[in-house]
UniProtKB/TrEMBL annotation:
GO terms for molecular function: DNA binding. InterPro entries: Integrase-like_N, TACO1_YebC-like_2nd/3rd_dom, TACO1_YebC_N, Transcrip_reg_TACO1-like, Transcrip_reg_TACO1-like_dom3, YebC-like. The keyword Transcription applies. It comes from Bradyrhizobium barranii. Belongs to the TACO1 family. It is found in: Cytoplasm. PANTHER family: TRANSCRIPTIONAL REGULATORY PROTEIN YEBC-RELATED (PTHR12532:SF6), TRANSLATIONAL ACTIVATOR OF CYTOCHROME C OXIDASE 1 (PTHR12532). The keyword DNA-binding applies. Pfam families: TACO1_YebC_N, Transcrip_reg. This is Probable transcriptional regulatory protein BjapCC829_06005. Residues 1-21 are annotated as: Disordered. Keywords: Cytoplasm, DNA-binding, Transcription, Transcription regulation. Residues 5-75 form the TACO1/YebC-like N-terminal domain.
């Protein structure tokens, strides 16, 4: 069944929808503050903070907001957030990973569990689906930055594991251990990427019918709209027709 990969396309759909909501800046600021608290406030020495700042810039978050989020960490202001990973199965047995930053574990767990249950899925234990994903680094560039061959050559030289070039741009994958060095080498050659982060990449994707796909897309939206949820990953593909119907 030809279709769109949820891994690539739902992320873009999410970006367009969340960009219309003021809460997006709150989520980005939360990640910046947590990253700065856990490491150094210097993004050149803190790859997680650098990734968070790049993500904020991509969404046109004002520089003042970014600096304020870093200062919050330095002054130990605001809430302390727990990082939690939830894993479960959505409609059709599709594997779903949810990453959250929350100041209320009970609320987050209750809300996320209810989203899974209402969609016809179920929340599982930590580790129940993550074995179907690879924890990996991704560095993304726009299509216009260089030719496929030039990006491939640079990625190989930098020590990347894989490169996928398409109309949507260049995606370079690297191991969690080598990700920072690969990102720095590519940035020196091509400039700041549009995205640089550690992600959960599905080892395989499952094509679902439109009825199941619609339920899954609604579950993705519910999860992504929750204040505590930072990232959602799943391993399904949906048809072009359904994406068009759902406004994707």
């Amino acid at each position: 069944m030809a279709g769109h990969s949820q891994f690539k396309n739902i992320m873009h759909r999410k970006g367009r929808q969340d960009a219309q909501k003021s809460k997006l800046f709150g989520k980005l600021a939360r990640e910046i503050t947590v990253a700065a608290k856990l490491g150094t406030p210097d993004p050149n020495m803190n790859p997680r903070l650098r990734a968070a700042i790049i993500a904020a810039r991509q969404e046109n978050m004002p520089k003042d907001n970014i600096e304020r989020a870093v200062k919050k960490a330095l002054g130990n202001e605001g809430e302390n957030y727990d990082e939690i990973r939830y894993e479960g199965y959505g409609p059709g047995g599709v594997a779903v990973i949810v990453e959250a930053l929350t100041d209320n574990r009970n609320r987050a767990a209750s809300d996320i569990r209810s989203f899974f249950t209402k969609s016809g899925g179920n929340l599982g234990e930590t580790g129940s689906v993550s074995f179907m994903f690879d924890r990996t680094g991704i560095i993304e560039y726009d299509r216009s930055v260089a030719s496929d061959d030039a990006v491939l050559d640079a990625a190989i030289e930098a020590g990347a594991d894989d490169v996928v070039s398409s109309e949507g741009g260049h995606e370079i994958y690297a191991s969690t251990e080598g990700y920072r060095d690969v990102a720095k080498a590519l940035e020196a050659k091509f400039g700041e990427p549009r995205k640089a982060a550690l992600i959960w990449k599905p080892q395989n994707t499952v094509a679902v019918d439109d009825e199941t796909g619609e339920k899954l897309l609604k579950l993705m939206d519910l999860l992504n709209e929750h204040d505590d949820v930072q990232h959602v990953y799943a391993n399904f593909e949906v048809s072009d027709a359904l994406l068009a119907k759902m406004g994707g």
